[in-house]
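User: Fold this; C-alpha cells only.

Assistant: Input:
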Amino acid sequence: MEHRPAFAQAATEVVLISGAAGVGKSSTAFEMSVQLQAAGVPHALIDTDELDRIYPVPDDLYQVTERSLTAVWQVFREYGASRLIVVGVWVHEPSELAWLVRAIPDARFTLVRLAASYATLAERIGRREIGSDLDGQLERTRRQLRKLARERRRDVRVIPTDGAFIRDTAAEIIRLAGWLKPG
C-alpha cells in the first residue's frame, strides 16, 4: 500500500524567476530556498532546464516540459509544498505562462525578471562554463538580452543583479511574494 502524507492543501503561490543566462536565477532560487528553510516555510524549487534535458530534442519539447512539471509538482504538493519557486529564462512570457498555469492549476504567480549588463553576464558565464560551449552560451545570452531589453511589462518586477549580493536579491523576492511574515 502506498503511503501519502496527509497535509492540508493550502493555496498555491508561485514565484517565477526569469532572465538571461548568467543573471543569477538558479543561485538566487537556491538562496531563497535556504532562507525559507531557515524560517520553516514549506516550499519546493524547480529549474525548468532540468525538466527537458533530452536528446534528440523532440518537436514537442514544450509538452515534455509541461508534463514533467505537472508530475513533479503533483508529488511536491502531495508532500505539503504550497509555495513553488520556478526558474527559467522565459518563464515570465505569456506563452510560457500558459503551460505553467496548466501544470500548476489554481496558483497565484509572482513574476520576477533578474537583469544584469552583458559585461556582468559574460564574466559570470566565463566562470561557470567549463565545457566546450562557452562561445555558444555567450551568443545565446546576447540574443536573450536583446529580446529582454525590448520588453516593457508592468506585471513583471525587474531586479538588477549587477553588484548585488545573492542573499539580498533572494530576500527581496521573498518579501515581494509575501512569503515571510514581518517581525
